[in-house]
Amino acid sequence: MVTPTEQEHPKKAFGWAARDSSGVLSPFKFSRRETGEKDVSFKVLYCGICHSDLHMVKNEWDFSTYPLVPGHEIVGVVTEVGSKVQKFSVGDKVGVGCMVGSCTSCDSCSNNLENYCPKYILTYGAKYHDGTITYGGYSDFMVADEKFVIRVPDNLPLDGAAPLLCAGITTYSPLRYYGLDKPGMHVGVVGLGGLGHVAVKFAKAMGVKVTVISTSPNKKKEAIEHLCADSFLVSRDQDQMQAAVGTMDGIIDTVSAVHPLLPLIALLKSNGKLVMVGAPEKPLELPVFPLLLGRKMVAGSNIGGMKETQEMIDFAAKHNITAQVEVIPIDYLNIAMERLAKTDVKYRFVIDIGNTLKST
Ligand code: NAP
Ligand code: ZN
Ligand code: ZN
């Protein structure tokens, strides 16, 4: 049977989709538009699995639409460019992150902050300018406006580079914007998952002293030895947490679930900043008194603009920063999702789309 999504556009596409909130994905045929004047088409080679994909697959944020083809850490090689494309040619290594469009004229768009455009268009599960639904990178190829395409520097391996398109920019941007990038500063990173481990790498490359704050001691050895974190706190160990009170200039909180903020606020020096990037499905409790007493700030940050995303990946290339990945075949996707829900991954699953996604 031919479904409407197969008929919408002229180009046949293939991927894996969630059909409901059960958390299970399966093969899915759909269609993509022809390469428009300003579009870049590329063959997807790798796609990272962000925890946001899991939130969306399970409709934990309550705005998912199905069928949903997730994936916003997408890298591949350009196969076709439109007549007005200026930045890319066939054969280039490129990536697409969390967004594929914006209004182009609001204050945010005018200031290279498309990520804060009220009309920004998510890479999947959103309505594109032409009214059709966007589909993400768990699929064989992508078509995107060149404005939302990033050049992947040649020295970065594509599998390890893919997560930079979301996890990378989401942690790089707040380190820069909130001024937590000054050598000698002390920054905490809460949650050593996909976002957290890249946050450690970026902060270290900026010359910052980094303390990882994790729920269990399991990741300590690797955090110190491989990720080069300076110290490690187990958040459930009250003695360790107490000893670190008032020592940090800032904290990047990447935790995907509801968790207490009070112990984290306590770790900040006066004027310290707790920056939330994790997106738990339910509100967190915010104790106000400890903020007042130390003039502390709790803030948020959402991915980054296109200009800064390119800057981030160029910085990563210069400092040899990639994600530590477990590369999986597409058939492993549902098991990977289950393991991600249990934080059983070090530190990012990346799907080998190029070699394992075959149309049936
Ligand atoms: P992830 O790989 O699953 O990492 C999250 C980490 O949080 C886990 O590894 C774990 O670290 C910690 N954690 C999990 N459950 C916890 C709990 N109940 N209490 C305390 N800590 C817990 O996820 P991710 O891909 O890095 O994404 C993290 C969050 O950021 C998700 O909510 C995602 O949707 C969101 N996100 C936001 C943006 C943005 O623009 N703001 C962009 C991308 C993703 P330990 O094992 O070390 O404790
Ligand atoms: Zn993401
Ligand atoms: Zn805008």
Give a verbal description of the structure.
- Helices cover 26% and strands 26% of the residues.
- The strands form four sheets. Strands 3, 4, 5, 8, 9, 16 and 17 form a seven-stranded mixed beta sheet that branches. A six-stranded parallel beta sheet has the order 12-11-10-13-14-15. The protein has a two-stranded antiparallel ribbon with strand order 1-2.
- The longest helix has 13 residues, at 306-318.
- It is globular and about 60 Å long.
- It has helices spanning 4-7, 51-57, 107-110, 158-161, 167-177, 194-205, 220-225, 238-243, 262-267, 289-294, 306-318, 333-341, 353-356; strands at residues 11-18, 25-32, 39-48, 74-81, 93-96, 99-101, 121-122, 141-145, 150-151, 186-190, 209-214, 231-234, 248-253, 268-276, 297-300, 325-328, 348-352.
- It folds into two domains: 4-166 and 323-356, Alpha-Beta Complex (Quinone Oxidoreductase, Chain A, domain 1); 167-300, Rossmann fold (3-Layer(aba) Sandwich), CATH 3.40.50.
- Helix 5 (167-177) packs across helix 6.
- The chain is of the alpha/beta class.
- The structure holds NADP nicotinamide-adenine-dinucleotide phosphate (NAP) and zinc ion (2 copies).
- Residues 102-103, 106, 108-109, 117, 119 line the site of one zinc ion.
